[in-house]
Design brief:
Blueprint (H helix, E strand, L loop, with lengths): L6 H18 L7 E3 L3 E6 L2 E5 L2 E11 L14 E9 L2 E8 L5 E3 L2 E9 L14 E8 L2
Parallel strand pairs: 1-3
Antiparallel strand pairs: 2-9, 3-4, 4-5, 5-6, 7-8, 8-9
């Protein structure tokens, strides 16, 4: 029949849509992902496990970054609240993106980038945020 998509085209579109769903989906709360060291993206309430370290991104405590549509004297910063566990040691810490890398036991954690970028007329909820952390063992 003319004008109707073929069966192969319909199946291809369905496969692409399912693939996009899984790629763009945020991890479910409570799920722990096994990760490699280096740069890792975290969503709020997400936990990742590294070799010898478990890290949870709890929330954004403060976001005083300069909006991208405004000229500011200072760039500002973000304060994140994270929970770190290694062995029998566990700490919940506020970490500033302007500060030096955070050292916890044998690991160094730093904030690389925060999403979304601020705009002067928009506000964000906690669940809108994602942070790229760099997590490395201290040599």
């Amino acid at each position: 029949m003319k004008g109707r998509p073929t069966k192969e085209l319909t199946i291809s579109i369905l496969i692409i849509m399912i693939g996009l769903y899984f790629v763009l989906q945020k991890p479910k709360e409570g799920k722990i992902e096994i990760s490699t060291f280096g740069e890792q993206r975290f969503f709020v309430a997400e936990t990742k496990e590294f070799e010898g370290l478990t890290m949870t991104f709890n929330e954004i405590k403060d976001d005083s970054r300069c909006p991208i549509d405004v000229q500011c004297v200072q760039a500002g910063s973000v304060v994140v609240n994270i929970t770190l566990k290694s062995g029998f040691k566990e700490e919940t810490i506020n970490h500033d993106s302007d500060g030096t890398p955070l050292e916890f036991k044998d690991f160094e954690i730093s904030i690389i980038q925060v999403f979304p970028e601020l705009e002067s007329l928009l506000s964000f909820n906690q669940n809108d945020y994602a942070v790229i952390f760099n997590v490395e063992p201290i040599s």
